[in-house]
Amino acid sequence: MMSSSKFSDEFKRDAVAQITERGYPVREVSQRLGVSPYVSGV
């Protein structure tokens, strides 16, 4: 069963880019965006 995501694909791509392309720490990005630094439901 798949749950619907409350975040848009654009939001997710930007969050990942901040970490992978810009080199920001996961903790910093997650705090700035107001989300958990942990992946769930994968």
Automatic annotation (TrEMBL):
Any one biological process term the GO annotation gives: DNA transposition
Signal peptide coordinates: none
InterPro entries: Homeodomain-like_sf (IPR009057), Transposase_8 (IPR002514)
Pfam family for this entry, one: HTH_Tnp_1
Gene Ontology molecular-function annotations: DNA binding; transposase activity
Descriptive protein name: Mobile element protein
